[in-house]
C-alpha cells in the first residue's frame, strides 16, 4: 500500500470538529488496541494514572498513528492498558459514543466532542490471559453490548478478534473468536470482523505462544527486548518505535501477548485494505 501521511492533529483539533472534511475514527480497548504498548503512549493514562490529555498526538507504533498513514481520518486512541471488558463497558458511552457520562474514573464526563464515524474495537485479552472459563460469557456479553450500541448510534464498527495469548487456554480464544465471527449475522453490514488470530499467527506469533519451532536465540533476544525497550524509552535513549529493528524482527514482545510496532503496522494496513469500501463510502479516503 502506498503510504499517505496526513498531518498529525492533537486530540483537541480532532474532537473540536475541525477540519470538517476529516471524519473521526476511534480505536478503543485494552493494551492490544493501543498497539506498541508503552504506558506513556496513551491520552487516557499516564504512568498508570487516569488522565485526559487533549493535546496528545499519536506516536509511531500505535494503531491510531498507523491508521492515519493510510486514511485521511483523524484517529483517537481511547484504549487503556490492562482493562477488562467490564471496565471498558463502564466508560464506553463516554469514550466511544461521545456521550456525556461519568465513569467515576477520574477522567471527567466527556472525552469526545463529536460522534466517531468508525470504531475499531479490540478487547478481551486481559480476561483471557487469566485462563478463567467464567470470563467467557462476560466477554461475549460486553462485546455484544458494545457492537449493538455502536450500530444503534449509526457508527460503523470493526471488531478485531483475539490474537494468540501465551497464558490463555486456546479453546477459550477459539470460543470467543467463533462468537465474534458471527456478529455480522446479527447486526448486518455495519459490523466487520478482522481476523487478528490468523494474521498474527501467520507472522510467527503462534509458534512463540505454543513453544513450537522455539529457536532459543531468537526468542531470548525478543524476550530481553520486551523487558528493556520500555526502559530505554523511559530514559529517552530510544524515541521512535519504527526504528527498532531488534523488536521488529519478530512480531511479539516476548511476553506472549503484546505486539511489536511492525505487527501493529502490518495489521493496521491490512484493516484499511480489507475495509477500503467503508472508508470510500464516507467520501474521505
Alpha plus pi helix count: 14
Question: Which stretches are low in confidence, meaning pLDDT under 50 for 5 or more residues running?
Answer: 1-7, 205-219, 239-250
- If you compute it from the alpha carbons, what radius of gyration comes out, rounded to the nearest whole angstrom? 18 Å
For the termini, the CA-CA separation is 13 Å
What percent strand? 5-15%
Task: Give an overview of the whole structure.
There is one protein chain. The chain has helices at residues 11-15, 31-34, 63-70, 85-95, 125-128, 135-152, 170-181, 183-187, 196-203, 205-209, 216-234, 245-248, 261-274, 276-281; strands at residues 24-29, 45-46, 49-50, 74-77, 118-122, 156-160, 191-194. Strands 4-1-5-6-7 form a five-stranded parallel beta sheet, with helices on both faces. It starts with 10 loop residues before the first helix and ends with a helix. The model is unreliable at 1-7, 205-219 and 239-250 (pLDDT under 50). Helix 4 (85-95) packs parallel to helix 6. The radius of gyration is 18 Å and the shape is globular. The chain has a single domain (11-198, 261-280), classed as Rossmann fold. The longest helix has 19 residues, at 216-234. It has 14 helices and seven strands. The protein is α/β, with parallel strands linked by helices and 285 residues long. A hairpin with a 2-residue loop joins strand 2 and strand 3.
Amino acid at each position: 500500500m502506498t503510504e499517505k501521511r496526513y498531518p498529525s492533529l492533537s486530540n483537541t483539533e480532532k474532537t473540536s470538529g475541525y477540519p470538517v472534511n476529516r471524519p473521526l475514527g476511534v480505536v478503543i480497548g485494552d493494551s492490544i488496541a493501543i498497539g506498541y504498548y508503552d504506558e506513556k503512549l496513551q491520552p487516557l493514562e499516564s504512568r498508570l494514572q487516569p488522565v485526559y490529555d487533549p493535546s496528545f498526538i499519536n506516536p509511531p507504533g500505535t494503531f491510531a498513528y498507523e491508521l492515519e498513514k493510510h486514511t485521511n481520518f483523524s484517529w483517537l486512541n481511547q484504549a487503556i492498558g490492562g482493562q477488562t471488558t467490564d471496565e471498558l463497558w463502564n466508560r464506553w458511552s463516554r469514550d466511544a459514543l461521545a456521550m456525556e457520562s461519568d465513569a467515576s474514573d477520574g477522567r471527567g464526563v466527556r472525552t469526545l466532542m463529536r460522534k466517531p464515524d468508525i470504531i475499531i474495537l479490540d478487547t478481551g485479552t486481559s480476561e483471557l490471559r487469566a485462563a478463567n472459563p467464567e470470563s467467557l460469557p462476560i466477554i461475549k456479553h460486553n462485546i455484544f453490548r458494545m457492537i449493538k450500541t455502536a450500530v444503534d448510534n449509526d457508527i460503523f464498527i470493526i471488531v478485531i478478534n483475539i490474537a494468540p495469548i501465551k497464558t490463555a487456554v486456546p479453546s477459550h480464544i477459539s470460543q470467543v473468536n467463533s462468537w465474534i465471527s458471527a456478529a455480522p449475522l446479527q447486526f448486518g453490514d455495519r459490523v466487520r470482523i478482522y481476523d487478528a488470530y490468523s494474521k498474527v499467527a501467520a507472522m510467527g506469533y503462534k509458534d512463540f505462544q505454543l513453544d513450537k519451532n522455539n529457536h532459543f536465540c531468537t526468542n531470548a533476544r525478543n524476550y530481553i527486548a520486551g523487558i528493556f525497550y520500555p526502559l530505554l524509552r523511559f530514559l529517552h535513549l530510544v524515541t521512535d518505535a519504527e526504528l527498532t529493528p531488534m523488536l521488529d524482527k519478530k512480531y511479539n514482545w516476548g511476553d506472549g501477548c503484546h505486539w511489536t510496532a511492525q505487527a501493529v503496522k502490518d495489521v493496521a494496513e491490512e484493516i484499511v485494505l480489507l475495509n477500503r469500501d467503508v472508508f470510500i463510502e464516507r467520501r474521505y479516503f
